[in-house]
Amino acid sequence: MYLPNRFFLLFGGVAFLLALGFPFPFFFQLGRAVLLVSVAMLLADALLLFSGKVKLQLKRKLPKVFSLGDPNPVYLELHNKSSRRLLLSLIDELPVEFQIRDFEKRTRIDAGEKQRIQYELTPTKRGAYEFGNIQVYLNTPLGLLQRRMVIPASASIPVFPSIIQMKKYALKAFDKITVLQGIKKIRRIGHSYEFDQIKEYVRGDDYRSINWKATSRKGGLMVNQYEDERAQQVYCLIDKSRVMRLPFNGLSLMDYAINTSLVMSNIALQKHDKAGLLTFSDKIGSIIKADRKGDQLNKILTALYNEKERPLEANYELAYQAAIRLIKGRSLLLLFTSFESSFALERVLPVLRRINLQHLLVVIFFENTEINDLAFREVSDLEGIYTQTMAQKFVSEKGQMVQKLRQYGIQAVLTRPEELSVNTINKYLELKARGLI
Q1: CATH top-level class for 163-187+229-434?
Q2: What's the CATH class of domain 56-160?
């Protein structure tokens, strides 16, 4: 038995009336009458709550895994097997990682009725999350007492890199007529190297691809059609040093890179390329050789799930040596890292140039969205002007880093963290369309 707020409000009012009875006797008699009615209501409420058997079936329905950084639906399924209507307050014991301390769902359910209550949870860290029991508080229309029931519902669910994003962006990348925002249609320059088929000429086809022999046999213009070259190696290189621990919107830069690496690996495999993974910091982490076997995506997903940030600086020389041993043949390397100053880029630029000589390197690093917002907001005092000037200098320096990389023939992508997946996919599709891989 539990006492809700309504109980204390009612009997607090009774006590106030009785206290007024000292200077004003009339209120004492009124208080006694209200007290008798309140006790009678309390006994009636207790009788309604505890007489008769309450039959309530309740279970929590979870997905197999949670996706990192995405809203994940959770369902509470109720079935009232009692012979009367129930007024319920539901408190689900959520994992401590969410730090939600005011979770409550209120509902009423008629006799024999089934209900489904949905809510969403957005995890910001990978790992196993533990759910507890479900606390159910029964009320009557009087609402002076509550009866608690504990529904055993302990469960553990892993939080993996975002599978939701992986599926969403795969659909966008492969839908040739999509008008959804994000994935850009890349104009082809020339054609790729792998022959696909001979087809009839239509307006807009490259006249240089006309197959004259097939044209003479068919009696109409025929052209050769080419497709993207397949079986190319695509590696995601993730810097997991301390610079990638910077959080934006609850997720660290490394978690953004992990989500995008899973998205890119899935798209590369579906385009019949080979996907691989290499993580590094002060020492080498996960190494998965590029392949396109059926279990390759699951290997990459498991490796990304287990990755942890390191508190030290990244050793790019070590990463270069590992890449030489691991990667055979020219490959596309997508390097996810973060440079907060030109000095940090200058230190690793010689290594990046050596990598780019053997492979097609794309350096993907992040804008500092908070500094960007600071650089372009209105200011009204001298201190704000100084702060904004420094922020604009920082933004300009990021742009100079992109130009510096391109000056040495290194592909570069500077992106906001929340736009990382879209911009990386666009760069991959662009390189495929241009035949640079």
Answers
A1: alpha beta
A2: mainly beta
